[in-house]
Design brief:
Layout lengths: L1 H21 L15 H5 L19 E2 L3 E2 L1 H8 L3 H4 L32 H14 L5 H13 L25 H4 L50 H10 L14 E2 L2 E5 L3 E2 L4
Antiparallel strand pairs: 1-2, 3-4, 4-5
Helix pairs in contact: 5-6
Length: 269
């Protein structure tokens, strides 16, 4: 036991000494009596600018021995409506851990979020296994979890992108990303047939040739194209007065939706 305590003390002293000699003097805040704050000596790095006000208040996030606890995060983030009321992020209300995707001390401008979809599967499976339905609220939560980890229920869910792990493949993407669907469900809800979880763009995708004329297989015209705006503005700007709404190829180029033929980039919606 004594040997263990001695080893811990040596390691702690080594960490303090390393930080003391590696940090520039300009990074220290010296108190009125000339002493350097001990928290600055043991910090593993600067906090993100959003948490910078906690620089010298380690105990706001860290508990002795246990480290960072979810309860400490909830103190500030429990009532953040822009997270809890949006479909892609509302799941945070039921997640029991924060550290799996959010990490600090990486620098002022670095991102503190690194999405881990496999961890979401682990959390969801654990919550389902512990779920005991006793009231209406828990029934709703249980139903949400079943939908959250419910890709297998999607009709025709067969192919999975090679970069998507087995755990990630259990997730029902639409339970969080329905509002992000630029395909307007024309390709269904099984996103992992084409997309991977670490990037939204598909590097393998090649747009059909410009002379392809069946655009509505993938593209849906904006609402403004179905009112007088199309005839009075869109068609005139593109110099195609006789163009019909479904004839996208007469005005648009495949380089970008706002790249109008013989006009260039023009966004007027």
């Amino acid at each position: 036991m004594k040997n263990t305590l001695f080893l811990i003390a040596i390691i702690a002293l080594a960490v303090v000494s390393f930080n003391h000699f590696s940090m520039k003097s300009s990074e220290f805040k010296v108190s009125r009596n000339g002493a350097i704050n001990w928290q600055q000596l043991v910090t593993p790095g600067k906090l993100n600018k959003a948490h910078a006000f906690l620089d010298n208040d380690c105990m706001s996030c860290h508990n002795p021995i246990k480290g960072v606890q979810r309860e400490n995060c909830v103190v500030c983030h429990a009532n953040v409506n822009e997270i809890l009321e949006r479909q892609p992020t509302s799941f945070h209300a039921d997640i029991g851990t924060c550290m799996g995707c959010h990490n600090e001390h990486l620098g002022r401008s670095s991102s503190i979020t690194k999405m881990d979809h496999s961890l979401l599967t682990d959390i969801g499976m654990t919550m389902l296994s512990k779920s005991t339905i006793v009231d209406d609220e828990k029934t709703i939560a249980h139903s949400y979890l079943q939908d959250f980890i419910g890709r297998k229920k999607i009709k025709g869910a067969l192919f999975v992108h090679s970069k998507v792990s087995n755990k990630e493949a259990l997730l029902n993407c639409a339970s969080c990303h329905t509002n992000d669907d630029r395909h307007f469900q024309l390709f269904g809800n099984d996103c992992v047939q084409c997309h991977r979880t670490d990037m939204w763009n598909i590097s393998e995708f090649r747009h059909p040739k410009e002379n392809s004329r069946d655009c509505i297989q993938c593209h849906q015209a904006p609402p403004s194209h179905y009112v007088k705006h199309f005839e009075m503005m869109s068609a005139k700007i593109a110099k195609q007065p006789k163009a019909k709404v479904g004839e996208c190829f007469k005005c648009h180029q495949s380089t970008h939706w706002t790249d109008i033929k013989k006009v260039g980039k023009f966004k007027h919606h």
